[in-house]
Amino acid sequence: MFKAYLKSKSILGMNSRNLRFIRSHNLKKAKRLADNKLKSKKLLKKNEIPVPKLIAKIKNRKNLDSFNFASLPNSFVLKPNMGLGGEGILVVYGRKKNAHNVWVKADKSLVTEDDLRNQIRNILDGSFSRTSIPDIAFFEDRVKLSKTFKPYSFRGIPDIRVIVYNNVPVMAMLRLSTKESEGKANLQLGGIGCGIDMATGTTTSAVQGKSRIIENVPNSRLSLSGIRIPNWDQILELAVKSQQISGLGFLGADITIDREMGPVFLELNARPGLSIQVANMEGLLTRLNRVEGLKVKSAKHGVKLTKNLFGGAIEEELEEISGKRVIGVVEKIKLFGKNKKEEEIEAKIDTGAYSTSIDEELAFKIGFGEVLDYFKKIEKPKDVTRENGQKIMEDLKNKYLKGHKDLLDIDIVYSSSGVTIRPKVKIRFIMDKEIVITRANIIKRENLKYSMIIGRKDLKKFLVEV
Amino acid sequence: MYSPFVEFAVSQGVPLGTVTLILMLPIVVMIIAFFRQVVGIKAFGIYTPALIIFAFLAIKAESGSFWGGIRYGTAIFGTVIAVGTITRILLRQFRLLYLPRVAIVISIVSLSTLLMLIFGGMTQRTGLASVSIFPILIMITLVEKFVAVQIDKGKKTAIYLSIETLFISMIGYSIASWSLLIVYLQEYPWLVFVAIFINVLLGKWTGLRLSEFIRFKKIIKNV
User: Fold this and answer.
1) CB within 8 Å of B73: residues ≥ 6 apart
2) Nearest CA to CA, how far is A144 from chain B (Å)?
């Protein structure tokens, strides 16, 4: 019960979406831009974001009367400039043969020039705009269905909704159109939303409509999880860039993939819906809180952050992508010392420490007894401080480094328990199939649980999961 | 015991009923706001349910009983929505532009309402026949909202929102007819400011709505 309550705290509801995110991060000017498709298209294009090509726009009745419909290509999309929720959009796939200005829709029904005129008149009258104010109609290129999505989509182009906040893509879903949604990828109309693992761009779970969890494409055995979205990094980067361009602090970016052009930006959304949480089976609020206040340097940095923060539903693949292995706080390792001596131990991963250190007893076991004895005989100065430490270390190094071949270096370590002077030796170890060669310092750690600490210096090839 | 403020208003010629109704409006809209922000019942915004509540109250004043308001109010509401939907479906084949189309829908709806009133008179339901023009006009204007939502969000949502509107209207109507509340408002008109204060709290409320607990129950269960 209490856990369920905590879980509910991770969900973004309408109230906090409106008050905490839209109201305070999406300024009026940016919202107006998002609601104006032509204007945002122009701005995005200017900033080198790929968008579907504009064919023609019809601003008023006069434009409509003089418009030459024969000049339209075989396939195109007719859209209202200020339309919302995908309303008023008309898509045609080809011209009907042996007929003058007749096109064919996805469901094979015909669209005549008169139908188009009527639709445009309705658009101009504002039938589809947010506040019923007069609108502009425009034609643009139809995006061509990419091969990856072909089996999953019913008569429509799937698109990817990415929520971006503070220049970090926070959550994403793949939207597919279905028979119920009449070829539209809108969840409210019965479309499908698939949650996406942010690190790999692979779908995880799926929802149809507002809250029905499904596993397969309706009426088929095709699984909706495990779909690998091509050009994933590029899609995330486009989403972040569109945030920087539009100034929408809380943005829903709609991006699709064209068979020839690759990722294409469809729409900016200033009021992204909440169903994306059901598609991902996870709350959005926790994620938003996590990226709040982070300093994000570039679009690439934002993409990297989301991969590290919100990836991992599919761990194996994460390793493959970032080239890093995911390890825990305590990891089993195989340690190689002198004279082919080896030892299997549990080491503590400590990102708070810079270098790796091992316990004296362990050092003995793997063949460093000699060098330890040698080091103990050295007369060490007592009152070492941070000020004179550097000089003392230089002196010691000059005097004793040549005395034993295993003594590679001498280190002074300042820690909460005081200052210690430690010998450094060369070791090798294998952690999670990865070979690491390093210089470890030796210290008495007998009352501590782990006989080895691995520090930051040797963790470059790993991601530590706490 | 009326408060001096109410007494003064009445002595200046403002009818007591009007004073009470106007004082009731802030309470009613606060309740609608509460249902939106905390419970999650959308209805057709705040304006339409508030008007319908007052239409119900007006019908009650004429029919003389609480249930009269509910019965006749619901009858008119239902007629308006049903006739509005049917007319819209019949008109679809003619492919008309938006405003003329809505104008035709409103015309048909008003004629049907008139027929219903006549029918009420014929079957001795005098309360229905004698309903004044004010509540009827309010209900008829509901059609425009209904048609707009139908175009915007689909038939299902429009019908759903109509039911929600009717539900909220009934609750608001019950509260506004509550004699204890009426007496209190006449005695302590400043209760209106309490309602405004509650609105401030509602306006800052960022918690999940009750309906969202249901909407996201699968995520919540998936601990």
Assistant:
1) B52, B55, B56, B59, B135, B169, B173
2) 27
What 8-state DSSP symbol labels residue A267?
Answer: E
Q: Is the reported ipTM for this assembly greater than 0.90? A: no
Q: Measure the CA–CA gap between A81 and A85, rounded to whole angstroms.
A: 12
Q: How far apart are CA B166 and CA B154, in angstroms?
A: 19
Sheet strand arrangement including A94-95: A94-95, A102-104, A110-112
> Which of A7, A125, A188 has its CB closest to that of B219?
A7
CB contact under 8 A, A15 and B206: yes
Position A265 confidence tier, pLDDT thresholds 50, 70, 90: very high
Domain parsing of chain A, residue ranges: 10-39+145-321, 53-140, 327-464
Token readout for B111 is 């004629």
Give the number of other CB atoms < 10 A from CB of residue B122. Answer: 9
CB–CB of A125 and B97 under 8 A? Answer: yes
Residue A296 CA, chain-centre distance (Å), reads 13
State residue A432's pLDDT score. Answer: 80
Residue in chain B closest to A127 (alpha carbons) equals: B98
Rounded average pLDDT over B162-167: 93
Distance CA B223, CA B217 (A): 11
Contact A127 B215 (CB under 8 A): no
Contact yes or no for A77/A140 (Cβ under 8 A): yes
Q: Name the DSSP class of B132.
A: -
Q: Which stretches of chain B are DSSP H helices?
A: 4-11, 16-34, 47-63, 66-91, 98-122, 126-129, 133-153, 155-176, 179-187, 191-203, 210-215, 217-221
The percent of residues in chain B predicted with pLDDT above 70, rounded, is: 99
CA distance A181 to A175: 11
CB A326 within 8 A of CB A208: no
| Contact between A19 and B223 using a beta-carbon 8 Å cutoff | no
DSSP label at residue A21:
I
Q: Domain A327-464 classified CATH 1.10.10.10?
A: no
- List the single residue in B with minimal CA-CA distance to A131: B148
SS3 of residue A364 by DSSP: helix
Per-residue exposure over B179-201, b if at least 16 CB sit within 10 Å of its own CB, e if not: eeebeebbeebeebeebeebbee
What is the rounded distance in angstroms from the CA atom of residue A17 to the CA atom of residue A283? Answer: 12
Residue A109's pLDDT band (cuts 50, 70, 90): confident
Question: Which residues lie closer than 8 Å to A212 by C-beta, 6 or more apart?
Answer: none
The answer to pTM > 0.95 is no
Q: Are A196 and A172 in contact (CB under 8 A)?
A: yes
Q: Is B218's CB within 8 Å of A211's CB?
A: yes
Chain position carrying tokens 């409103």:
B106
The residue ranges of every structural domain in chain B are 4-221
Residue A381, both tokens: 């100065």
Could you tell me which CATH class the domain A10-39+145-321 is placed in? alpha beta
One fold for A10-39+145-321 and A327-464: no
